[in-house]
Amino acid sequence: MNNRSIKRWVFLSILLGVFLWLISNTQLWEIILSTLFPQETRVLHPRSLPVLVWEHVRLVVISSSITITVGVPLGIWVTRPSGRDFLPIVNDITSFGQTFPPVAVLALTVPMLGFGFLPTTVALFLYGLLPIVRNTIAGLRAVPPDILDAAYGLGMSRLHVLFRIEIPLAARVILAGVRTSVIINIGTAMIGAVIGAGGLGSPIIAGLVQDNIAYIIEGAVPAAMMAIIADQFWANIEETFAYSTISSNT
Amino acid sequence: MIRLQRVTKRYGDTIAVNELSLEVNQGEVCILIGPSGCGKTTTLRMINRLIEVTSGHIFVNGQETSQIKPEKLRQSIGYAIQSVGLFPHLTVAANIAVVPELLHWEKDRITRRIEELLALVNLNPREYAGKYPSQLSGGEAQRIGVARALAANPPILLMDEPFGAVDPLTRQKLQSQFISIQQKLKKTIILVTHDLNEAIRLADRIAIMESGKLVQYDTPQVILSRPANKFVHDFVGTDRALKRLSSISIEGFVKPAPSVMIDASNREIASVIGYRRYAWVVDKNGKLLGWLDRTNLNEATSVRETMVQGDIEEIAIPNNATLHEALARMLGQGFKSIPVVDEKGKFIGEVTLSDVEAATAEMES
Ligand SMILES: Nc1ncnc2c1ncn2[C@@H]1O[C@H](COP(=O)(O)OP(=O)(O)OP(=O)(O)O)[C@@H](O)[C@H]1O
Ligand SMILES: [Mg+2]
């Protein structure tokens, strides 16, 4: 790890610390929001902010973990000889998954899976799949053919070539897809509130229904901070571990 | 060592290689040459099974390659290509270590081997082992590519236009290095090239291909003097006498020539160069520095002021160069002689235009 990436991780830790401090100080929110919106009798959602954040984080972490563990292998598989025939289908399905509005996905999953956490997770999983699969395919296909030729010519097995050459060279593009997917998920997870999965969508929806801007702020600001932190986190992973033509020179 | 028996490769209706039979003996350099698309690369890649044959048999060391696991086969055959294909995310050392690691060599042995190979291709291990491919020049990358191909000491080497992507001067240097490495290692090599002069210089035998078929397989001398048919005749060209010079090393033509030290006095110069007008100038270690035109030298001037200094690579040729290069350089520079140096730049002697002309005339007769 070089100096620059150590600095980035320190910065991220500070950011995370500030975030945790902010969401655990409910009184502070109350003071600020009451000053801004004196006409409202209530400025905080009845459920406590740390709980809402926890629900949101849980939704995003679980659904994104599933998306990554399914999406990356899926992208790898359709670029192998054994899965190449499925490349067009997988491409279609994943783009379809994203053109579908998340509310519609919910509408379809609720009858099958009921209300709450599970259908939301399924919707988020489908919704986040496209960027990961697409970037995995693009990253693997961008590996120059002469490098693969040399790798096979030296006697590497397919598995060796995949893990020692293709994935390291595609890592940056794959991680960029993961980053996009996670950030999309943080935003999309808001809709979970509609079907009772909780999360930061709850104050926003309540705020919209009751015309209470303070509620909306209570939901939107922590979600925006989460997105920034997630973005920084994946950027740091990329910077620290993935090969790039630029960082290899230093 | 390597034997191809009526090997054919079809892609749909195209026949890339057609009933090709070829045998390369141990320690020999066989060069595949022919027009673009004649099937050279396909032939080469069928030997290490990067391409599977449509029909026919290939034997390596008496064993049919279709009976050997492709990975095992390839680990025992060095492979170097024009685009080099160094792995950009790995250091030079890690690139070279690929095959030894596949073969589970011990760490110490791999480290020693890397140093040995970098020294073999004339790169300083301490300086280069930790570099990344993006930090190398084209010629350096080519040499690392060859070092990587040689890493596990395979008896056989397949090379597809290994010197194709570098400038002519670098190519000449890589060729000389190839010759001296091959003198040491005695590998069995099949090399593809587009450059007939390169083929003549490096080959023990040249295989000329035309649309998937082998048209002539002979030593450079025979190919030049007795082309098998009109295709080979045309391919070899009308300047065959000139091309034959590519197969002759200058070593037998180097003559001693007067050289003066850079700090020599006028009297010393006179005694050394006698009636000649020009003399080569060396430093106290015998390294060539430039030349001196005596008519420009008088009582008031010194060698240092009068001499013409030059980059050694431009004014001299190495002692393993060919007569073809010597001739080209003399004609290019308009000189009647060219100095010859060893690999350290030390002055050895000179080759004169008249000697080269005499050699050409002798071959014609
Ligand atoms: N994968 C392929 N599919 C179809 N045709 C191919 C394929 N690979 C090669 N060919 C054809 O086979 C012939 C021989 O190709 P090959 O690459 O062996 O030529 P080459 O002698 O190496 O040419 P060059 O000097 O340009 O490198 C060409 O006509 C080429 O178009
Ligand atoms: Mg070719």
3D architecture notes:
The complex is a heterodimer of chains A (250) and B (365). Helix content of chain A is 76%, strand content 0%. With 250 residues, chain A is mainly alpha-helical. Residues 246-250 of chain A have low confidence and may be disordered. The mean pLDDT of chain B is 89. In chain B, helix 5 (107-120) packs across helix 7 (138-150). Chain B has helices at 40-47, 70-75, 92-96, 98-102, 107-120, 125-128, 138-150, 168-185, 196-202, 220-225, 230-236, 240-244, 266-273, 303-306, 312-315, 323-333, 353-364; strands at 2-11, 14-24, 29-33, 55-60, 63-64, 77-81, 156-160, 188-192, 205-210, 213-218, 259-261, 278-282, 288-293, 308-309, 317-318, 337-341, 347-352. The radius of gyration of chain B is 24 Å and the shape is globular. A six-stranded mixed beta sheet of chain B has the order 6-7-8-3-9-10, with helices on both faces. In chain B, strands 2-1-4-5 form a four-stranded antiparallel beta sheet, with helices on one face. In chain B, 38% of the residues lie in helices and 25% in strands. Chain B is an alpha/beta fold and 365 residues long. In chain B, a hairpin with a 2-residue loop joins strand 1 (2-11) and strand 2. Chains A and B meet through helix 7 and helix 8 of A and helix 2, helix 4 and helix 7 of B. Bound molecules: adenosine-5'-triphosphate and magnesium ion. Magnesium ion binds next to helix 1 of chain B.
